[in-house]
Specification:
341 residues; two-stranded antiparallel sheet
């Protein structure tokens, strides 16, 4: 479907003759190619040949371009700029081999074809995003707000990083991990015995934490939320939100950085629903697109119907129906596979 996006359009130009008088064959049909000895190629013959080979993929892109340029007329410059920037990145990365890279990795024969594809894909993505947002109900937003939106919390931590090196054996790596965990557990025992947990935590962080950016400040990480920290801290926020203000984790919390002891210092009230509604809508619609492969197909189907698209050619219409059904079947199968995993 990616290849030959311009071909059918070019054939239509041939058929139209670019304003020139088109010769007629004996049966009244228009000629695309004539020969001195009478063997001629008609416009209908060319159309049927192209239709069977490249017609559907080209037609779909022509249809979507026609529709989406009207629907998203205020976004056309952004679409062009996005496509152009991606092409420039490819040229910058591959230099003189840019065209070969495009041909190898995308299947497009020219840079212009691929840039046109990127332009249309940008507009298609806008349609998919809008469709997905329309599927999100107010009740979905409210439920997400109640279950997944939290107020910011101020936290401190002590990080003990295992002294692991790449050239270590697995046994030595395990020993290093165990040593770091036991060190963190010893610090927790000291906190258990402390009269003033906050003061003791700061002292222990300054002396023991391997996080050089926060150790001098007593391990202070400031205010965080569920999406504040990098992926290196996966699991950190979940553990922190299970604590009450003034509490610390009684077991070391493992992340890719090492073992953390977390102190939840204080909390802020969470934002009002109306202040985060748009953010939640973006989150839920993005989740729908990524988790339900049928969403993108249904979205483009929906906007084509909105504009009253009808394919008059019976063969192309049949091809299109089969294409949609096959795409949906594959998407449903993909959904099932993802669920099983």
């Amino acid at each position: 479907m990616k290849k030959k996006l311009i071909l059918l359009g070019a054939c239509m130009l041939l058929v139209a003759g670019c304003g020139k008088t088109i010769p007629k064959l004996k049966d009244g049909s228009e000629a695309v190619v004539t020969f001195s000895k009478g063997q001629n190629i008609s416009a209908n013959a060319l159309y049927n040949e192209v239709k069977d080979t490249y017609g559907l993929s080209t037609l779909i892109n022509m249809v979507d371009k026609e529709i989406l340029e009207k629907e998203y007329k205020d976004d056309l410059e952004d679409a062009k700029s996005s496509a152009s920037n991606q092409i420039e990145q490819i040229k910058s990365q591959y230099g003189d081999n840019a065209l070969s890279a495009v041909q190898q990795f995308t299947g497009f024969s020219t840079m212009e074809d691929y840039e046109n594809y990127l332009y249309i894909a940008y507009l298609q993505n806008l349609a998919v995003e809008d469709y997905a947002k329309d599927q999100v109900k107010d009740s979905d937003i409210e439920n997400y707000y109640n279950e997944s939106i939290y107020g910011d919390i101020k936290v401190s931590h002590i990080l003990i990083t295992p002294e692991v090196k790449d050239d270590m054996s697995e046994e030595d790596k395990t020993k290093a991990e165990d040593k770091a965990k036991k060190e963190a557990e010893k610090l927790i025992k000291k906190l258990n015995e402390a009269q003033d947990v906050s003061k003791e935590f700061k002292t222990l962080a300054k002396k023991n934490s391997d996080d050089e950016a926060t150790s001098e400040n007593g391990g202070d990480l400031g205010y965080i939320n569920t999406d504040t920290l990098s992926s290196d801290y996966d699991g950190f926020a979940d553990a922190a939100y299970k604590l009450n203000d003034g509490e610390y984790t009684k077991e070391p919390v493992k992340t890719s950085l090492g073992y953390h002891i977390i102190l939840r210092v204080k909390s802020k009230e969470k934002a009002k629903l109306e202040d985060v509604k748009d953010k939640i809508l973006d989150t839920l619609s993005s989740k729908l697109i990524s988790e339900d492969a049928t969403t993108s197909i249904n979205a483009l189907q929906d906007i084509r119907k909105k504009y009253g698209m009808e394919i008059k050619d019976s063969e192309l219409n049949k091809q299109y129906s089969n294409y949609i059904q096959n795409s949906l079947s594959n998407a449903i199968e993909q959904n099932s596979s993802s669920t099983e995993q």
